Q: What sequence folds into this?
């Protein structure tokens, strides 16, 4: 159908942007050095113009992706409860895993959710918020620097989405097994304890099935150091077209974290263990709802 094809094209645009941004930037810099400005004009304009958080785009233009990926949601913590807590000033860290090569499940949720939830910012690697072209394509989701003070402000004064495994988890994406980069990721727990923002675990079933990434080689190494994927990945027919894998967004219940002025390491470790067990529970409980996940094994690295 037309909607299905539109969803395929839209998701392919996002995937192609990741693949082509780096070559285009290099081409633009070369063009500028040769005093050929026209080919580099999109690069120049993107470098000068700030990115825009557009809830209109996520609501109205990304909807067909939900159909393409047969997207659905399971909410242990309901929209009504969450909305009421937000209106009462309660802050949350929405802890999303796994990252996948590109988080199409997260993108679909931005289109599918109620209006007020689209205002929530998403933490991303610094390079994603600064690189021309990429910052505008991904900026529609309302990105903030995951390594800066903005994320602490988000946790203290509002809510923020954090992809816990980050770029390291991207390279663990597999269609055969589910591996989360989590054992050493405890900063978000400390952030929750010091700001008083409770943690809501989000499990994104299907996120690791849509694309396959090259996990070794110089580009993979550079990707890890830069905090953004500039390595090669593929989907349908070895192209950037994402596979139309089913996606299920699972929202768990808040963990119940309360604010501590000076949390000790044992406090951080204890809540980290609670989070790990809850994430595993969500996976094991709901993996049967997502085609291809029935026999997937779960690991925490």
A:
């Amino acid at each position: 159908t037309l909607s299905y094809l539109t969803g395929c094209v839209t998701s392919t645009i996002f995937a192609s942007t990741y693949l082509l941004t780096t070559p285009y930037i290099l081409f633009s810099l070369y063009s500028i050095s040769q005093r050929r400005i026209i080919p580099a004009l999109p690069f120049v304009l993107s470098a000068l113009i700030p990115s825009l958080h557009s809830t209109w785009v996520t609501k109205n233009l990304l909807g067909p992706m939900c159909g393409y990926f047969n997207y659905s949601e399971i909410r242990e913590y309901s929209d009504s409860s969450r909305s009421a807590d937000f209106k009462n000033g309660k802050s949350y860290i929405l802890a999303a895993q796994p990252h996948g090569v590109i988080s199409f499940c997260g993108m679909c949720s931005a289109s599918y959710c109620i209006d007020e939830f689209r205002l929530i910012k998403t933490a991303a690697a610094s390079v994603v918020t600064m690189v021309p072209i990429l910052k505008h394509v991904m900026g529609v989701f309302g990105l903030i620097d995951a390594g800066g003070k903005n994320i602490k402000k988000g946790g203290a004064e509002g809510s923020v989405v954090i992809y816990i495994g980050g770029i390291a988890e991207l390279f663990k994406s597999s269609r055969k097994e589910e591996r989360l980069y989590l054992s050493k990721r405890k900063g978000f727990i400390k952030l929750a304890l010091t700001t008083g923002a409770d943690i809501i675990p989000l499990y994104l079933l299907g996120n690791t099935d849509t694309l396959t990434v090259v996990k070794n080689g110089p580009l993979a190494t550079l990707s890890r150091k830069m905090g953004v994927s500039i390595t090669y990945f593929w989907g349908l027919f070895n192209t950037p077209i994402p596979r139309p894998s089913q996606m299920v967004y699972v929202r768990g219940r808040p963990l119940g974290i309360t604010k501590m002025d000076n949390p000790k390491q044992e406090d951080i470790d204890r809540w980290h263990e609670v989070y790990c067990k809850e994430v595993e529970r969500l996976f094991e409980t709901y993996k049967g709802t997502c085609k291809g996940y029935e026999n997937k094994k779960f690991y925490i690295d």
